Amino acid sequence: MTTTPVALHQTRRLPSWAPWAVLAVSLAVAAAILGIGGTPTVAGVVFLGAIIHVVAVVAVSWQVEGPRWAKDRLATTLVTLAFVLAMIPLVSLVWTVVSGGVRTFSWEFLTTDMVGVFGQMTEGGAYHAIIGTLYVTGIAAVISIPLGIFTAIYLVEYGGGRLKRAITILVDVMTGIPSIVAGLFAFTVFLVLFGPAYKSALIGGIALAVLMTPVVVRSVEEMLRLVPNELREAAYALGVPKWLTIVKVVLRTAIAGITTGVMISIARVIGETAPLLITVGITNAVNYDAFDGRIATLPVYVFRQYAQGGASEYRAWAGALTLILIVMLLNLAARLVSRYFSPKGVR
């Protein structure tokens, strides 16, 4: 008995360069249309070209590939456009900060303070503000990270009933607290305890901890919920206590996500200005004592320098660039930590 081979229908596909060719033609058509009424702008050409590109690439795909692949092309194009739109403000922000700060950013800027710098002098740096930022953010991290992780562990592994619901509601409310309210809270607490003259990095750290803790709780809670229950049950079946299962299995499995959530919370508070204006103020000299005296921080330093204008504005951009670099270094350190401590199967 012989079987007649059946020729399978081969769907025609557009070459890989076709969407790019359609995009180039769309931009050219958009420039021609806008050029009729005057000189076209880059933003106008890109906006109109994107619309023409979406319509054109779907129409061409419909004719060549069929309706199924045309719908796929439409979804792919819209997702790509959404990504490009999301990247525009990010790239614009980074470019603005780098172009403005690179003129003043140097090793001397990182290792000098503002003592003896007056008016529109071009000297001076942000060393004192860097030290203050590390102090304040470090205090906030020391308070928030353990508190947030333990709270998330309780909510996921132990909590139940009214107490769990109350903590969840409180965390949700704290997530939306304005930063100025956190600053006023910390200032009021220390005003009652030590009087109005007391200023220190400790007050600023507590203010930032109020903002940082709910972010840590929420991110760690979500990461712990992603750990499969089968891993917990396997540990329990081997006779491992619950606390040791959490430490050795649950936390080790979710360490990469927990580290990312902690870094997001640090990035959330390291640039806060309003609470630090109230709690720690500003100074021109380095203060190595985190528990006594005013201390400068990079957000407040940038605010004050930009408000002065003139040559001080360049120092403001350099301070903003320094702040971004600190966040990048912290993220790099977090990546290394999560890579080192994560189980081999999830690295």
TrEMBL record:
Domain of life where this protein originates: Bacteria
PROSITE patterns the record matches: ABC_TM1
Pfam families registered for this protein in UniProt: BPD_transp_1
Transmembrane segments annotated in the record for this chain: 17-36, 42-62, 74-98, 126-155, 167-194, 200-217, 249-270, 316-337
Keywords recorded for this protein, A-Z: Cell membrane, Membrane, Phosphate transport, Transmembrane, Transmembrane helix, Transport
Main location: membrane
InterPro entries hit by this protein: MetI-like, MetI-like_sf, Phosphate_PstA, Phosphate_transprt_permease
Family the entry assigns: Belongs to the binding-protein-dependent transport system permease family. CysTW subfamily.
Protein name: Phosphate transport system permease protein PstA
Phylogenetic classification of the source organism: Bacteria, Bacillati, Actinomycetota, Actinomycetes, Micrococcales
